[in-house]
Amino acid sequence: MSDTDDETDDRKDEISSEAVAHVRYLYDSGFPFFTKDRIRGVYEELQRNGQPGNKVRIEGLDGKFDQFKIRNGMYCDEEEGLEYIFEKPIIHYDSIQGLLDPDMVGYWSPYTNIRIYHQLLTRDKLTKRITNPVYVTSLEEVRVSLGTTLQMWKASESWKQLKYKFGCLQNLNINKMVAFALGPIQAFAEEKHSNRSSFQHALIISLHELLRDVSNGSDIKCYAQDPAYTKHDTAILETFGVTVLPDPEGFLEVDDSTIVVSISPNVAVKQVVSDIARPAIIIWNRIEEIDQRCTDPDSPRLRTWILAHYDSFDFPGDWDYFGDLVVYIQRPNSTEGDRVSSLA
Ligand SMILES: C[S@@+](CC[C@H](N)C(=O)[O-])C[C@H]1O[C@@H](n2cnc3c(N)ncnc32)[C@H](O)[C@@H]1O
């Protein structure tokens, strides 16, 4: 749920076919919708003013400001004996499709592609009992789940194939790995879907080890960003050499010498990353020829970018754990040609 104050409501009224057309024009002309400076600015503003009752000001793509009220800990009425409680504020990065979605016109300005949300809990008005509690996997369950899946993954044919493919790559200039949206780790279960997050973390841990082995001991970092991590995830991942970063520090770490891993995120990671850097290797959901309606959609601009700069091979992992992933490797001779950085 996004929460804005009256000033922002005025701004919603500015929504016009001209604004929609202008945003589409900016996107088509290559104007970067996400820059590290802008993302850093939002982060600093949240750190300055992100306490309950304050307002956070975020500059839109047109240079005008939206204000978001910070409400964590507060509650509001819902229907049928329930009330909402606002959880901590989180940053939402919207795609071009989200901004121009006709079903969403009127909810926010098409220039407002970075917004502040609050996750919501619901509770019974009378008993105050939370009706949608978030289950927190215990420290021991996280440790066992990750240990078990790491063993299974390292023994798998998929990992052997991936290791072989990485071994064939020449002249890689990689100094870190940044993973997005791998999700909180669940207790190990028979049902494959519950082990997705564990297997996805096993992937980054094993790749990190491989990179360290082939880099003659240079200090290659491995970072992971997902606002849903628990303190147990953070603690256990640290023991495997993975440092959890708060949003948006993961984005601020991404540069042209990074391996980016992103699997089915709830925000537009593809559109953010392709605007802020040209990572050496990217492992994420296949870029399709037609845009799908989802939280991390492809776009014509993204397809042009990936075709211009990357070779690829299919990720050899089990779809139940990883979905349809592709490994994109930056072509050595790719040029700066299509980086447009000024407002046309
Ligand atoms: C659909 S789940 C995917 C989880 C897991 N990768 C999988 O394939 O099952 C989307 C994930 O995106 C995460 N997410 C949302 N906003 C994010 C952000 N700004 N940075 C990184 N992850 C984010 C959510 O917390 C959630 O864990």
Question: What secondary-structure arrangement, pairings included, does this model have?
Answer:
Layout: H1 6-13, H2 17-28, H3 36-49, E1 55-59, E2 65-69, E3 75-77, E4 82-93, H4 96-100, E5 114-124, H5 139-154, H6 157-168, E6 176-180, H7 196-214, E7 221-225, H8 231-239, E8 243-244, H9 249-253, E9 258-262, H10 269-276, E10 281-285, H11 300-309, E11 310-314, H12 319-322, E12 325-330
Parallel strand pairs: 6-7, 6-9, 7-8, 9-10
Antiparallel strand pairs: 1-2, 3-4, 4-5, 10-12, 11-12
The protein binds S-adenosylmethionine (SAM).
Short description:
With 344 residues, the chain is of the alpha/beta class.
Please provide a written account of the structure.
The protein has 344 residues and is an alpha/beta fold. The chain has two domains: 6-124, no CATH class; 139-330, Rossmann fold (3-Layer(aba) Sandwich). Helix content is 35%, strand content 20%. It has helices at residues 6-13, 17-28, 36-49, 96-100, 139-154, 157-168, 196-214, 231-239, 249-253, 269-276, 300-309, 319-322; strands at residues 55-59, 65-69, 75-77, 82-93, 114-124, 176-180, 221-225, 243-244, 258-262, 281-285, 310-314, 325-330. Helix 5 crosses helix 8 (231-239). It is globular. The two termini are 33 Å apart. Mean pLDDT is 90; it is low at 1-7 and 337-344. The structure holds S-adenosylmethionine. The site of S-adenosylmethionine has 17 residues, from helix 7.
